[in-house]
Write a structure and sequence with these properties.
Blueprint lengths: L5 H17 L9 H6 L3 E2 L4 E3 L19 E4 L4 E4 L5 H14 L4 E5 L11 H7 L4 E4 L1 H22 L14 E2 L5 E3 L4 E6 L10 E5 L4 E5 L15 H12 L5 E4 L8 H21 L5 H10 L10 H19 L2
Parallel strand pairs: 4-5, 5-6, 6-7, 11-12
Antiparallel strand pairs: 1-2, 2-3, 3-4, 8-9, 9-10, 10-11
Helix pairs in contact: 1-3, 3-4, 6-7, 7-9, 8-9
Organism: Thiothrix litoralis
Protein name: MBL fold metallo-hydrolase
Keywords: Signal
């Protein structure tokens, strides 16, 4: 029998995935915009990232705003942060199937915020035996209400564009330094001690290819909410990441870059937090601090989310600095 070229096999596989995803339209919605407008970028020999848009979840982007990543080896595929809805997860899956027909065996979550992991559902649909990994605190928080809260938040912010998503909560609790053999490549989990962006943060390193997935602990040209985090903890986490032997940084939001991405985001956190502590000593209130702190952030004036988040970041920094005094 004549051997079928691998490219044709992959094409057939992707067509079958497409057919299965469109069957039962209501139950199997796919984020068509992600499929049409965003493509996986190969950032190293085996690592791909789909760089999402920078805005907040809304009806137009249908909740797509993060950077889903995946690692393809000769043996299997591992996925990191597949996005904020089942439809987004199915689009990520379809992109993967255009590249490889290898089994997707493991899905990893960087933190509890649902815009990063509610796409899990698509991968359980394809492979009921896939394993979902996360920080133990993420698993507990998700079980204790965070999962349903994020389902509701995404549904509300997108005007029901994410409706029908089920929260597939990870069941496999990671430990710090835990390594996974992906068939010639290693994936190593770095659990962040205490709070950084949240108290559930994990960074994932691919040592052989010097790649680091940071989740929202680090972002590039995007200022994110810090309601669940710590500025001092975020600075510490960035300093830790700088000690690792990596040279490609995949942030939670924004484009992949060099180690400068770590330094630049750390410096934003540090400028806000250190300025707040200095201005507190002058007995200034939070609202009085903003103009002075803005003067120190001219390098970040074009960053998405600065106008929306800076005032809140100053207020949160004041509270954190007050807690340091006790």
């Amino acid at each position: 029998m004549k051997k079928v070229p691998k490219k044709l096999l992959l094409l057939s596989s992707s067509l079958l995935v497409g057919l299965s995803l469109t069957a039962g339209a209501e139950d199997k919605k796919v984020h068509q915009g992600l499929l049409d407008k965003y493509q996986p970028e190969k950032i190293s020999g085996h690592v791909y990232v789909i760089h999402g848009p920078m805005g907040y979840p809304d009806k137009e982007n249908q909740g797509f705003m993060n950077n889903p990543g995946f690692i393809v080896t000769d043996k299997e595929v591992a996925v990191i942060d597949p996005g904020s809805s089942s439809a987004i997860g199915r689009a990520v899956l379809a992109h993967i199937r255009k590249i490889t027909d290898k089994p997707i065996t493991q899905v990893f979550t960087t933190h509890v915020h649902g815009d990063h992991w509610l796409g899990n559902q698509a991968f359980q649909e394809e492979n009921p035996d896939v394993k979902f990994y996360a920080h133990p605190a993420m698993i507990e928080e998700a079980k204790n209400g965070a999962a349903e809260e994020w389902i509701g938040t995404m549904d509300s912010m997108t005007e029901k564009a994410t409706e029908g998503t089920q929260a597939i909560i990870p069941t496999e609790a990671l430990t710090d330094g835990q390594s996974f053999d992906l068939g010639g490549l290693t994936l190593k989990a770095h659990l962040i001690e205490g709070k950084a962006h949240t108290d559930t943060d994990v960074m994932f390193e691919v040592p052989e290819e010097k790649v680091l997935f940071t989740g929202d602990t680090i972002n590039n040209k995007r200022i994110v909410r810090m309601d669940d985090g710590s500025f001092a903890g975020g600075i510490k986490a960035a300093d830790y990441a700088l000690t690792l032997g990596v040279d490609k940084i995949v942030p939670g939001h924004g484009h992949t870059g060099s180690k400068n991405v770590l330094t630049y985001y750390r410096d934003y956190l540090n400028k806000v937090y250190s300025s707040v502590k200095d201005l507190r000593e002058q007995d200034m209130e939070a609202f009085e601090m903003k103009p002075k702190i803005e003067e120190k952030l001219t390098d970040y004036k074009d960053w998405q989310g600065l106008d929306e988040e800076l005032g809140k970041h100053i207020s949160l920094s004041v509270l954190e600095a007050e807690q340091e005094d006790f």
